[in-house]
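PROTEIN DATA CARD
Card holder: HTH cro/C1-type domain-containing protein
Chain length: 586
Origin: Streptomyces lasiicapitis
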Amino acid sequence: MSERHQLGELLQELKERSGRSYTALASRTGLSRSSVHRYCQGLTVPASFGTVERIARVCGAGQEELDSLYEAWARADAAAGVGERDEREEGEQGAEGEQGAEGEVAAPQQPVHVRKLSRFGLPGRLPRPRLRTILVAALVIVTALVSTLTLTLDPFSGSDPDPAPGGSGKGSGGPRGGGTSGQRVEGPYWALAPKPLDREFFGVTMNTNTGLMPDFDVSSVRLWESETRWAQVEPEKGEFDWGILERSVRGAERKRLPVLFVFGGTPGWAAPGGPKTPYSDDSRAAPPDDLADWDRFVEKVATRYRSRIGAYELWDHVGATSHYDGNMATLAKMVRRAAAIIKRADPEAKVACPSFGNLWEPAGRELLEEFVRTGAYEFCDVAALKLHPRRADGPPEEIIELAAKAEGIFRKYSEGWRMWNTGPGAEIDDGAKLSDRRANDYAVRFYLVGLYSRKSFVDRMYFYAWGGRNIPLVVQPVGGPPTEAGRRIGRLHGWLAGRRITSCGQGRGVGLPDGVYECVFRRDRDRDPGTAGPWFAVRWTQHGRASGELGEEARLLRRMDGSSERVRPGERVAYGETPVLVEYRA
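Structure generated from the sequence above:
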C-alpha cells in the first residue's frame, strides 16, 4: 500500500466515525468538497499538514491520532515528487477561501502540526511550541491573502457540488477536471432517456439445496451456496449427480425466475494437490490440473441446460485464496475456453467473467486490473464483482463508491464493462448483526444504490443470500416466512415493475435537502396505459433525517410499510433512512 493511501485510510476512518459527509467536512474546513474527497481516498497528498489537521479536528481526532496522522503525512509528502508538490500547493491555494455550503467563507482553523521546515528553507524541525508560533502566524497571513485574492478574482466561486460516489451532499454537475472553483451547475448524478431496468435486476443468491424459492417478489436467482458446485455435480470423473441442480432449476422455473449458474469448486480428483475450499465437500480452490476436465464439465452443463439456464458466471470470489488459488493467466485461459463452449451450446446464454472480491483493498483491485490486462473480458458479456460496504453492517451507499473504483479500473483499458454485483464475500464476515430497523432499510437500499450506480455500469444486484440464517441480514430462512426486510424488497420490486428509470442524484443539485438521495422513474405507457402520475421519485438518506418541500404536481406519498397518504405541492416531507416514494402528476 502506498504512503498516500495509508494517509487516506486514516482520514477516511475518521470521516466515517464522525458520520459527516464530504460536503459537511468541506463547509467546516474551508476546503472544496472534491479536495476533501481526494485526500480521504488517498488520491492526493495535502501540501501542508495543516490541511490534514483541519479535517481531523472536525472529525473529532485526539492528540494521539494527530501524531499518527502527522507521521503518515510526512511519509506521503516525502514520497511525492517536486512537481507533484507544486501542483498540490496550487490546488490547496485554490481551495482555501471557497464558499461553504451556506455561502459563507470558512476561515481555516489554526494547525498545531506543520510540515518539515525544509519547505521553508529552515534546517530540520523546530520544537513544537516555537514551530507553532512561527508557522501559525505565517499561515494566517497567507490564508487571508489567498482568501482575499480568491474572492476578488472570482466573486462567484463556490463549493464544489459534484458528489463523490457514496457520499452525502449536493447533486452532481459541478466542475470536473479543472480547478476547485468554477461553474455551479445543478443537476442529477446521471440522467438518461427513460430506460427499462434489466429484467433480472432484483436478484438473490440461493443458500439452499431444497429447490425452494423466495416468497417475496424478485426477478432472478444465482446458484452458488446451493450445493451446485462442480465437486458436487461431478464428484467422480465422468460421474454426474444432477439431482440438486435439477431441483434448483425446476424450482426457479416454477417461479419464472431466470437462473445464473456459477462455475467453481474444482473436484478433488481434478486438482488433488490444490488447497481445499471452506465448504464441506471435497472442492478445491485451485484450477484443474488438466483444463480438458474443465472443458468437459462446462460443455455438459451448458448442453443439458440449454435455454433453461440463462447466464453463467465463470468462478466465484477471485481475490480470496479460499476460493481461487491459481494465477490470472490460467483463469483467463479457463474463461476463453468456457465462453466459447457455452456460446456454441447455447448462443443466447450470457457469460459473466469471474466474480472478483476484496475490492476495498488495493491488493484486490490490483488483482482485478491484472486480470483485465489478460484480455479475458473480451470473451464475456459482463463483469461479475463483489460490491459491498466496508463492513457487514456498513451503509449500502458505500457500494456506490466501490462501483466507481471498479469502473475506473475498466476505463483504463476500455470504455467500461457492464457489471453484475454478486454481493459480499467472506472478507466482511465480521460477525455483525443488524437490528430489525437497519435490516429493513439496508435490504431495500441495497437495490437502490445499485440503481444509483448505473453511472458506473451496474446492471444487476444479487442480494446475498436467500435462505440463510447465519448472516448479518436475513430476508427469509428456508422453510419460514419472509422477514420484514424480505417483504420490503418485494414491495420495492412492485413499485418499480414496468417502470423506466431516468436519473439519480442527491441534495441541492436535484432540488432536495443535503444528504437526500433520489432516483426518478417514468411509467412505461406501453405496459401501463392510462395510469395517473407519469413520474415518481424514490428518496432516502444514508444517515439521519432531512425535510424539504414537495414540488409542483406532487400527489401521493408511499411508505415501505405499505401505507400511503395524499400530499400537496409545497408540503414539507421528512426523509430518512427508510426510503419513500413520491408520485407526481406531471
